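Take the subject:
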Amino acid sequence: MRNKPLPSGEVVLFPGEKRSPQATKTTPIIRLRNVTKSFNSGATRIEALNDISLDIHRGVIFGVIGLSGAGKSTLIRCINMLEKPDCGEIEVAGQQMTRLSESELMVARRRIGMIFQHFNLLSSRTVAGNVAFPLEIAGFDKRSIRARVRELLELVGLADRADAYPTQLSGGQKQRVGIARALANEPDVLLSDEATSALDPETTLQVLHLLRDISRRMGLTIVMITHEMGVIREICDQVAVIDGGRLVEVGDTARVFTRPQSPVTRRLLRGQMEAEIPAELLKRETHPGCKLVKLSFLGEVAEKPVMAELVRHVAVTPNILYGRIDRLQDRPWGTLIVELAGEPEDVEKGLLYLKNVGVDVDVLGNGNTNANHSASQGR
């Protein structure tokens, strides 16, 4: 098997593999520059990706989210060149993927693992046989393959299922086999295309926690394509939002969730909130002089008595209608739906006070669902 890096920095490579000297820990492991990809559908030309430029750094769990048809899957398939872009450049681990020949691409793809929504396991092979398959293609000897397969099955918690066949596994177990297989060649990058969307919520969390643990322990970069905000919130360090083939927002997950800049992002986030908040609250009629607002607290401010301090400083009466505390990237993330009552100028002072102490404020009531009193407007 290929060894871990030696003290000198030397790495034992696959047969025929060339490691670019440009691939260092200080440079992005994935770089996309002006990537465009379109398809023909009858007489119609569909632009799946439009001038996408993006940097993804080593060891990061990077989410890509958007509605169905936004271009997410096309993006991930361009990264490993299963889809060739019409124009633009794609660099992975120091290699210019768009400049490689077919034979060079085959070698380069060994450095890029991929897990799929529907697992894509070989039904005629056992669990061990599925994990061994990419190693056999790469030309490793049987002894090395057996050792690597055993190591990987222990990693994903399936050491006791090595001789089982896919039909004997649950959905979560099948995806764990898919993860082990994707890790067989010790890739630099792991691509996940809606890998949890076919799983139930509990199994989804188990798989996501496994991926996070693998990323942290191995320093592995993971790119997760998903339409589920919950997946992004659970494990992604950074997120990009795609709409209509265009990159509309990118940044740290905490920043994007609490201070979304794009209307598309706010719509995606609000869709999640509507699924969690009782519908009658979102339809609630507020009295003149009142405002219905969503307050988001992240980090230290989520643990402070903000509402008590608000009443002390401003002549408003807050009526808390809904609240929850969650976790976002291992930090407390609080959400309140509050009706603020008072004189109009005092209500505005209250909103300003909340913003100044680090709370993100989004006005929901009186049909004013697009009013966003975020940090970008008040800090």
About this structure: The longest strand covers residues 44-56.
